[in-house]
Amino acid sequence: MQLRKNAASRQRKPQSGFSWHLIIRYALIIVGIILLFPLYRFVRQQLLKNEEQKDDIEKTKKYNENQNPQIAQSKADKIVNDKGVQQAAKNLAHHLGTKYSDVPFSWTKPSTWSIFNPKGWTENDAEAAKILIYQRNNYRFLKRLYFEVYTNSRDLSSDVLSLLDDAELKKVQKYLKL
Predict the structure, then answer these.
(1) pLDDT tens track, the chain, 178 positions
(2) Which of 1, 143, 158, 166 is least surrounded by Cβ atoms within 10 Å, i.e. has the fewest?
(3) Angle between helix 166-175 and helix 125-134 axes, rounded to 10 deg
(4) Is 17 helix (H, G, I), strand (E, B) or coil?
């Protein structure tokens, strides 16, 4: 009888309620999940923001360089020496209104707010279409000048497709493949 009593006392009794031994055993894993996952998300978001800020700084630097007429002219001369093509690209940026909307935005400088610049409010679509049709043989130079010199890294094809009215766009598409 004594043997049976000892064997029965050795068996574990099922514990009722919450078991703390699992939390103590897996405390590091639980702390790691609770702390490291949000930390990982935060670091990943900061890296993405850094990349975006780097791109913005590069665009702002390029825009500021292109505001100096001598630097802009030397960049344009490196692309193409024909002054007519250079002037056409400059006029396209003006007539599409993108030259004035590319100013890097700053909350502290109201002069950078595009709503206060009436030059960017309207577009002269007829003149832009005329320039594109007239310079259709030099479209690749126009596109490069528009992107690198006269706007802040904007694509001419996408701007033409989105900013020109339907009538002018159909005229241009007869001569150019956008």
Answers:
(1) 555 555 555 666 555 566 777 777 788 788 888 888 888 999 999 998 998 888 888 887 887 787 888 998 999 999 999 999 999 999 998 888 777 666 656 667 666 666 665 555 667 889 999 999 999 999 999 999 999 898 878 899 999 998 888 999 999 999 998 7
(2) 1
(3) 0
(4) coil
Cα separation, 119 vs 151, in Å, equals 14
CA dist., res. 102 & res. 70, Å (int): 19
Structure tokens at 109: 């400088």
99 with 93: CB under 8 angstroms? Answer: yes
**Whether 129 contacts 168, CB under 8 Å:** yes
Hey, what amino acid is at 113? W
Closest CA to 55 of 6, 104, 98: 104
Give yes or no for a contact between 178 and 160, defined as CB atoms under 8 angstroms apart.
Answer: yes
Structure tokens given for 17: 């309620």
Q: Residue 86 corresponds to which tokens in the numbers above?
A: 């250079």
DSSP annotation of 105 reads P
